[in-house]
Specification:
With about 150 residues, the protein is an alpha+beta fold. About 25% of the residues lie in helices and about 30% in strands. A 6-stranded mixed beta sheet has the order 1-2-3-4-5-6. The structure holds coenzyme A (COA).
């Protein structure tokens, strides 16, 4: 999958931005710190490499690098359904921007890229679950409320 050089992010004129799929080296370059700001992973870099190795190919974690360090991340799961005549749905998970990098459009830029990747993978929609506090963030990016989230704890 192609690496995307990000041309312009507001307020970040002199910085280099790249969006690409997560690589094992990112576990020593800010990925875990970024995700820890969503929820503490408690993982070592070696444990994270094992998880990346075990993953199915339709689970894709993207990173936005700022000057070579991970500044934001999002995961896309691509699911081909039996209903909707085999239609493909994208599920977005684990969106986070490092606390010191927030408010500069990084998550927006990353999610716009992930949505385009979902389109390229044939998805007819992209869905996610989130808390009420971050609904306005997703609405700014173009999501709308649809359905409700349910869970059972195991
Ligand atoms: C939510 C989060 C990913 C936003 O990242 P960010 O890089 O600061 O977001 P951006 O700067 O790209 O913001 C994009 C737009 O959303 C708005 N926005 C950002 N956070 C917002 C919030 N909490 N509430 C309302 N609007 C918000 C921005 O003002 C911006 O609007 P604009 O482009 O119209 O000016 C980040 O705050 C974060 O990591 N939070 C902790 C983890 C989390 O809750 N993740 C979501 C899991 S579902």
């Amino acid at each position: 999958m192609a690496t995307c050089q990000v041309k312009s992010i507001a307020g970040a004129a002199n910085r280099t931005h790249v969006i690409r799929l997560l690589e094992p080296g990112d576990f020593d370059s800010g990925f875990l710190e970024t995700l820890n700001s969503l929820r503490e992973t408690g993982l070592t870099a070696d444990e994270a490499v094992q998880i990346l190795d075990n993953r199915l190919p339709n689970i894709r974690t993207y990173v936005l690098l700022e000057d070579g360090q991970v500044a934001a991340t999002a995961t896309l799961m691509v699911e081909q359904k039996f209903i909707h005549r085999g239609g493909i749905v994208g599920h977005i998970e684990d969106v986070a921007t490092r606390p010191d990098k927030r408010g500069r459009g990084l998550a927006r830029r990353l999610l716009e890229h992930v949505i385009e990747e979902a389109r390229a993978a044939g998805c007819y929609k992209v869905i996610l679950d989130c808390s009420a506090e971050v609904e306005p963030f997703y609405e700014r990016i173009g999501f709308r409320q649809a359905g409700r989230c349910m869970r059972v704890d195991l």
